[in-house]
Amino acid sequence: MGRMRIDIGGVRLYFDVEGAGLVPDGTGMSERPVIVALHGGPGADHSLFKPVLGPAAEFAQVVYLDQRGSGRSDIGEPAQWTWERWADDVIDFCDALGIDDPVLVGTSSGGWVALTVAHRHPDRISGMVLDSVMPGPAGERLAVFERLGGTEARDIARRYWDGEDVQDDWERVCLPLYSQRPAGDPDAANRLARIRWNRDVIEHFRHTLAAEFDPWPHLDRVACPTLIMNGEDDPVATASAARRLAGALPNTPALHVLPDTGHGVFREDPDRAIALLRDFLLRLEP
């Protein structure tokens, strides 16, 4: 089919699809759940989910979406790089493609978008999977960085979050601490190289959007079942914050905190993440 883009709110959003939505079942066709995968960054792209989310296509249809301003989607106006606009884009995108009751899978800031969808449009999604999503307080995050990388990592992280120009030090010292996978992963460098970053979006996030994200007052509006996955050694979306989120959400969400795991459970432990996703979708079946 080539590259697939659809006009949503004046911008063309790129998407890709893996897996069948309808499968033969005796004399009829059975409908599979539809997953809409929301990447992190913000300002990264859907390649973060490939190939780790691919096995989910055996039991669901997976729709990968590059959010407004990211990846292969149009950049649009910077004034529209907001949690609310990204969340509303998800609903408008699903409406345009006729996707009813999707399950949102959000990793990192993609989970911030999913949470925003869940409280702004609580009747529009059937489930939500939050992978390494809720940021801990600054002191909590800095403590994890220090535990994993010493005082140098703590100091660089503090200066980065304070808005200082320490990008090179951040990428050299702090970013490697996001992952607890064994050294020598042959695809690690390739994964980073595949991302089509919009650096303007992530800088906008660092200086503005991060401070504007506050879902706590709205969590009582979240109506759908939720699965929360987190790494015990995640230095940004801390395990303690994941536990607090689980305690604040209604409907008793499922929480899984994995030991020796960093940021992004789908990347860090893909087999475990896919198994948890499969079980979650089975519990959603009527």
Backbone shape? globular
Intertermini distance: 33 Å
In percent, how helical is the residue content?
25-40%
Please state roughly what percent of the residues sit in beta strands, choosing from under 5%, 5-15%, 15-25%, 25-35%, 35-45% or over 45%.
15-25%
CATH-derived architecture of the largest domain: 3-Layer(aba) Sandwich
Family: Belongs to the peptidase S33 family.
GO cellular component, one term: membrane
Domain AB hydrolase-1: 33-269
GO biological process, one term: proteolysis
Question: Can you describe this structure?
Answer:
The protein is of the alpha/beta class. It has 2 domains: 221 residues, Rossmann fold, CATH 3.40.50.1820; 44 residues, no CATH class. Helices cover 38% and strands 18% of the residues. It has an 8-stranded mixed β-sheet, with helices on both faces. The chain has a two-stranded antiparallel sheet with strand order 3-4. The chain starts with a strand and ends with a helix. The mean pLDDT is 94.
Relevant terms:
single chain, 286 residues, alpha/beta, Rossmann fold, 8-stranded mixed beta sheet, two-stranded antiparallel ribbon, 18% strand, aminopeptidase activity, hydrolase
Any chance you could write out the topology, listing elements then pairs?
Layout: E1 4-8, E2 11-18, E3 22-25, E4 28-31, E5 34-38, E6 61-65, H1 83-97, E7 103-107, H2 109-120, E8 127-131, H3 138-161, H4 167-174, H5 188-194, H6 199-212, E9 226-231, H7 239-248, E10 254-258, H8 265-268, H9 270-284
Parallel strand pairs: 5-6, 5-7, 7-8, 8-9, 9-10
Antiparallel strand pairs: 1-2, 2-6, 3-4
Helix pairs in contact: 1-2, 3-4
